[in-house]
Structures are given as structure tokens and as C-alpha cells.
């Protein structure tokens, strides 16, 4: 369980479930989530079984909580989350205030409405925007355009389904010197499309494909200072625009992000403070690395 920011100094208890399901058929260059899933179709009953196992030990009332059903792919992919399981999934999620699932922009359609209509809680859909640079996006094997994203955002807004977005810090084939500005522009793009929450995720390099891109110079891992700066600049812009969008930097395995050992702890603490306060705080200075 985590306390996820929902505004300035306001958080929501959130139970995040990383479900084992069918591997996502959209094989983005940068993605490593396939390592936690399997290539075959998810058996009927498997997903409810996983949810029951994760929620059985909860002792606190969850009426104000959110639950994330993350399957490393797309909720409306019937081979990943069998529609036959939806009624039971909805029943298991009934005590929560909000249900968050992830979906590809091109899969945000009528099937989502059928699942929404089974739910008592508010439905929120997480969509990977990744970047607002159309040329860089086209090189990620994501099988999505910015027009696809705009269509998904409009569909969700029209049907009163909340939107959250993932933005990547430093994608393959992008200019590493512009990664902070690119991430900030993507955050603004998502907020203007109606996203209520945007997470900035430093691109990881722990797959063979990413290691090859590093070897050819087509990918440079982002730094902790760049992540801190991207969050600072995004929050500054969002607060100026007064969009109400929450912006955070993803802290999953944050110790693995490329860093200077002298300023690592200070930067992580500053990122965590900005995440929770939703205020841009001065970026850490370091004499050793010159940042």
C-alpha cells in the first residue's frame, strides 16, 4: 500500500497490484514489463484469484482507497484480462473508492464502458503517452500516434472516466540533451488533454534491446538530476496553468537511476517531497558532480 498524491499535501491510500497476465502484444522498445508476464492467454479465474489473495489480509476499511489493477499491458485485451472475469473483479473492487487500470490508447473504446458499468467505484484509466514528440513516438514501436492519444483522452472525458498518463524521461532515439524539456512538454500535453495525474518515469535499460541501443549510442540513461529537474519544471508549469493536474516522478527502483553518489540521497528526498507536496522545490546543488 502506498499514499499517492492527489493534490497539494493530500494523498490517497492506494493498493497497487502487479497482476500476472498475458504479455502485452504491443512491444514498445523501452518496455520491460513483459518480463513479469507470460506469452499465453490468461486463464479464466486467475485474475480474481490474484486480487482475492492480495486483498484478503487487509484489515483497514478501504472506502477511501484506490486500487490499481496493473497487468503490464491492457485491461481490455481479452487475452490478458478475460471479460468473463469482469463481474467478479468488479465485485472484489466494490469496497474501494477508485479502480485504476492501464490501457493502450487504441484500446480505449466500448469494452471499457462495459467494465465501467459493472463498477461501483470511479474508474480511472492509465494511458502511456510517453512523449509529445511525434517523430520520437513513431520510433518506439508503440503502434500509437498523438491523434490516437487525443481520441482516447476525448473518449474517456466524454464518458466521465478519469485519465492518468505515463511520460518517459529520455526515450530511445531522442536527444539526451533535451530529455528534460521533452518530458515537461509531454506533461503539459497530457494535462491539456484532461489528465488528472501524470507520472514521469525514467526509462530503464535492463533489457537486451535497450543494452544494444546503449552500445550504438541511440540511448543514454537519464540521470537522477534530470528526473528531479523534470519534476520541478513540470510542477512549476502546471501550477502556473492551474490545471489541477497532479504530477509525480516515479520512484520505483529510484536508487537504480544513474546518479552521483554524493547528491543521490538529497535528490531522492527532494523528489519525494515534491511528489507529496505538489510544489516545485529548488533543485539540489552538488559541488562534486557540478549539477
Number of helices: 9
What is the 3D shape? Answer: globular
Give the low-pLDDT segments: none
Q: Which CATH architecture?
A: Alpha-Beta Barrel
Query: How many beta-strand runs?
Result: 8
Topology pattern, helix = H, strand = E: EEHEHEHEHHEHEHHEH
Based on the structure, what is the oligomeric state of the protein chains?
Answer: single chain
Distance between the termini: 34 Å
- Residue-averaged pLDDT, rounded? 94
Largest sheet descriptor: 8 strands, mixed
The CATH topology, please?
A: TIM Barrel
Proportion of residues in β-strands: 15-25%
CATH superfamily: Aldolase class I
Look at the structure and give the CATH class: Alpha Beta
How would you write the strand order of the largest sheet?
Answer: 1-2-3-4-5-6-7-8
Number of domains: 1
How much helical structure, as a percent, in the residues? 25-40%
- CA-atom Rg in angstroms: 19 Å
How does the helix and strand content classify structurally?
alpha/beta
Protein name: Elp3/MiaA/NifB-like radical SAM core domain-containing protein
GO molecular function: catalytic activity; iron-sulfur cluster binding
Organism: Allorhodopirellula heiligendammensis
Amino acid at each position: 500500500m502506498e499514499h499517492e498524491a492527489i493534490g497539494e499535501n493530500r494523498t490517497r491510500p492506494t493498493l497497487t497490484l502487479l497482476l500476472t497476465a498475458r504479455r502485452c502484444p504491443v512491444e514498445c522498445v523501452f518496455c520491460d514489463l513483459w518480463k513479469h508476464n507470460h506469452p499465453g492467454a490468461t486463464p479464466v479465474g486467475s485474475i480474481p484469484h490474484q486480487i482475492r489473495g492480495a486483498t484478503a489480509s487487509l484489515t483497514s476499511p478501504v472506502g477511501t482507497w484506490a486500487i490499481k489493477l496493473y497487468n503490464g499491458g491492457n485491461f481490455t485485451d481479452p487475452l490478458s484480462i478475460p471479460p468473463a472475469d469482469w463481474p467478479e473483479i468488479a465485485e472484489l473492487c466494490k469496497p474501494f473508492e477508485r479502480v485504476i487500470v492501464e490501457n493502450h490508447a487504441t484500446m480505449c473504446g466500448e469494452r471499457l464502458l462495459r467494465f465501467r458499468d459493472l463498477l461501483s467505484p470511479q474508474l480511472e484509466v492509465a494511458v502511456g503517452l510517453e512523449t509529445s514528440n511525434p517523430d520520437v513516438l513513431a520510433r518506439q514501436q508503440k503502434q500509437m500516434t498523438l491523434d490516437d492519444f487525443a481520441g482516447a483522452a476525448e473518449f474517456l472525458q466524454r464518458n466521465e472516466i478519469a485519465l492518468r498518463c505515463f511520460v518517459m524521461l529520455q526515450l530511445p532515439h531522442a536527444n539526451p540533451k533535451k530529455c528534460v524539456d521533452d518530458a515537461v512538454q509531454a506533461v503539459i500535453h497530457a494535462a491539456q488533454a484532461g489528465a488528472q495525474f501524470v507520472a514521469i518515469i525514467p526509462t530503464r535499460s535492463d533489457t537486451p534491446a535497450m543494452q544494444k541501443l546503449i552500445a550504438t549510442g541511440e540511448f543514454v540513461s537519464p540521470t537522477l538530476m534530470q528526473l528531479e529537474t523534470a519534476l520541478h519544471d513540470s510542477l512549476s508549469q502546471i501550477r502556473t496553468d492551474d490545471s489541477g493536474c497532479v504530477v509525480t516522478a516515479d520512484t520505483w527502483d529510484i536508487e537504480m537511476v544513474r546518479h552521483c553518489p554524493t547528491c543521490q540521497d538529497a535528490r531522492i528526498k527532494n523528489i519525494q517531497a515534491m511528489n507529496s507536496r505538489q510544489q516545485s522545490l529548488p533543485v539540489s546543488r552538488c559541488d562534486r558532480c557540478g549539477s
